[in-house]
Specification:
By secondary structure, the chain is an alpha/beta fold. It folds into 2 domains: 232 residues, no CATH class; 123 residues, no CATH class. The chain is built from 13 helices and 12 strands. The strands form 3 sheets. An 8-stranded mixed beta sheet has the order 1-2-3-10-9-8-11-12, sandwiched between helices. It has a two-stranded parallel sheet with strand order 4-6. Helix 1 packs parallel to helix 2. The protein is globular. The two termini are 26 Å apart. The mean pLDDT is 89.
Length: 385
């Protein structure tokens, strides 16, 4: 249930919208502009939907808050999509008073994190984009002390590309861990929730995957546009480009490349050790540039890289193709060793399911947090039961 929503003035002409959901506080610190939209409760409904579906409980928005009639209708479709991807998410009633959302502003904004997907989206859609939206706290928990450093890095990138930045500071990532829903199963809902509270009318969601990789995912070609609420229209963009091709776009802008941030471990810099850093370093090595990383990966490290998901496999295959096209046979051979090890591991998983009924999978799961499992269906929702 969405609790009482407080709207308070903060420093520097900003507003804070907050409530308690799932017995934990959820808040958004936004530019004040002309005040929040008349359907500001849309943001909290979007955040609460998946968690309510997982629990099988109605999502209730108090009658004093109006939500968009279009978003309410779209959420019925969103629920059917999530349920078809993974039946552990139950279709639930949404109890709310609806109204047509009012349009107060125009313009086009692209969500921007300073990573590969968001930078390439700005480059490829430069003629359309009026501004960008950085959601601080979307994928990392960011406190007030770290925020200036991260926003300054984004400003340096955007100054090169000639685009301004709109800041939404939130505790989405921290709050989301309380719902039991993996963020990767739900993150376009997070973006929509933040985007509803900004001035731009059209919001571009940079693709994570290509048209060739349309497996269940939190940002998806068939899902993202359904977050439109009448005042805001969301578009999924750049799905024609894979990650290696996006990096090829970025290396054409050396000053932008120097500020690239991809790391999952550190919100401020690239560690050069995590899987996401290493696979980005591989692509840049193939392209003949180093980028903002403290080290260069070796062929031995590439060969030993552990691929943990179909997503990681997809990125490796893209790099194999790029390395082959550029004559880097040494990198091709190293990556193929990592891919073969992944294939062997998957074969053992299939053997475990087919012969032992998943005994070893269940044994392993006893030591894994539940929130790390829910939502990663990879086309096999039976694995969540």
């Amino acid at each position: 249930m969405v609790g009482n929503i407080k709207i308070e003035r903060a420093a520097h002409g900003r507003l804070v919208l907050s409530t308690n959901m799932n017995e934990h506080p959820l808040w958004f610190n936004i530019p004040e502009l002309d005040g929040p939209p008349d359907t500001f409760a849309d943001s909290f409904m979007a955040m609460g939907l998946a968690g309510s579906m997982l629990k099988g409980e109605p999502l209730i928005v108090p009658a004093k808050y109006k939500i968009s009639s279009l978003l309410w209708e779209n959420c019925q479709i969103i629920q059917r999509i999530l349920h078809s991807w993974n039946p552990v998410f139950k279709i639930i009633p949404i109890e709310a008073v609806t109204k047509k959302a009012s349009i107060h502003h125009g313009g086009v904004a692209s969500f921007f994190s300073g990573g590969v997907d968001s930078i390439s989206a700005v480059i490829c859609n430069e003629a359309r984009i009026d501004s960008t939206i950085f959601v601080g706290g979307f994928d990392f928990s960011i406190d007030e002390n770290d925020l200036p450093t991260i926003t300054a890095r984004n400003h340096r990138i955007l100054d090169c590309l000639g685009k301004p930045q709109i800041l939404v500071h939130t505790n989405q990532q921290e709050w989301g861990t309380t719902t039991g829903v993996a963020r990767n199963f739900w993150h376009s809902g997070y973006l929509a929730a933040a985007g509803y509270l900004t001035k731009e009318k059209i919001l571009l969601v940079p693709s994570t995957h290509t048209y060739a990789d349309l497996a269940p995912a939190g940002s998806h070609l068939i899902l993202d546009h359904l977050w439109s609420n009448g005042a805001k229209a969301l578009e999924h963009v750049n799905a024609e480009l894979n990650r290696a091709q996006k990096l090829q776009k970025i290396v054409e802008f050396p000053d932008v490349l120097a500020e690239l941030h991809v790391c999952w471990r550190d919100a401020d810099r690239n560690c050069g050790l995590c899987e996401k850093c290493v696979r980005t370093m591989i692509t840049l090595d193939i392209l003949g540039v180093r980028g903002p990383f403290p080290r260069v990966s070796t062929l031995r490290e590439i060969a030993d890289l552990k691929i943990r998901s179909w997503e990681g496999l997809t990125y490796m295959i893209e790099n194999v193709v790029l390395a082959h096209e550029t004559g880097r046979g040494d990198i091709v051979r190293a990556m193929k060793k990592a891919i073969r090890r992944y294939d062997r591991a998957k074969a053992l998983e299939d053997l475990d399911r087919g012969v032992f009924g998943g005994y070893f999978r269940d044994l392993r799961r006893r030591y894994r947090p539940y929130t790390d499992r829910v939502g990663f269906t990879n086309g096999r929702p039976d694995l969540d039961f």
